[in-house]
Amino acid sequence: MRVSMSHATSTMCLAWAAPTPGSYADHHTERGDDNGDELSNQESFAGFRPLAVLSWVPEDNPLIEGHAVYLALRDLAAIRLLCWVPKGSGGHLEVPIARKNHTYSEDTLLLRDYWNKQQVHQEEELIVATRSAVVVGGVKQSYHIESPASSHRLGSWLVLTEAVKCLTSFEAKYPEYVTHPVVPAWTQEEALTMYD
C-alpha cells in the first residue's frame, strides 16, 4: 500500500500594512504600553485600518487543497479555525488588527497588570497549515492531512474577528464574518428568534 501526500513547502510571511506617508493616521499616533513599544498607527477617521497580511507562494501540486488559518491564544491550548483559503483563491489573506495595551502571553505579567486594575489581554497568534488530500493506492481518500503549521505571533495586536470576512469552515461556499456582534435581547423569545 502506497500513501502519497503533499507537504507545505510554501514560504509563509506575516507583514504589517502601513498607511501612506502624510495620511491622517500617519500624524495621529499614541504612546504604547509601559514596556516601551511604540504604537504604530491605529484606525483613523480617514479609513485606515491596520492589517496583518499573511502571504504565501501558491503551489501547483494537485494534492494541495488550500490553507487553513487558525487563531490561537499564545501559550494556551485554545485554537479555532479563522479562515479557510482554498487553492486558487490567491496567495494572501488580510486580517484587520487593533493594538491593545497590556497584552501578554506570560502569566506573571497578566496577573501583575490585572492586580493593578488594568484591562489585560492574552496574546494571539496566527497559525497557518496547508491542507492536502491523501492518495492511497491511486485513490483519493475522503480525509485530509495538514502540514506542520507555521506560527506568527501578533504581539500586542489582536485580531478583529468581527471585521474578518472569509470562508469560516472547510465546507463553506460563501464568505461570511467570523463573529457577529452580540445583540442583547430583552426577552427569551427575542433571544431564541436569533437562532432560527
Tell me the number of helical segments per DSSP (H or I, 4 or more residues long).
Answer: 3
Main β-sheet: number of strands, strand sense, barrel status?
Answer: 6 strands, antiparallel
The parts where pLDDT drops under 50 for at least 5 residues are 1-11, 18-41
Helicity, as a percent range: under 10%
Shape: globular
Q: What amount of the residues lies in strands?
A: 35-45%
Radius of gyration: 20 Å
What distance separates the N and C termini?
48 Å
Which structural class is indicated by helix and strand composition? mainly beta
Give the overall pLDDT as a whole number. 76
Number of strands: 14
Give helix and strand order, one letter per element, not per position. EEHEEEEEHEEEEEEEH
Description:
The protein has about 200 residues and is mainly β. The protein has helices spanning about 25, 105-115, 190-195; strands at about 5, 10-15, 50-55, 65-75, 80-85, 90-100, 105, 120, 125-135, 140-145, 150-155, 155-160, 165, 175. The chain starts with a strand and ends with a helix.
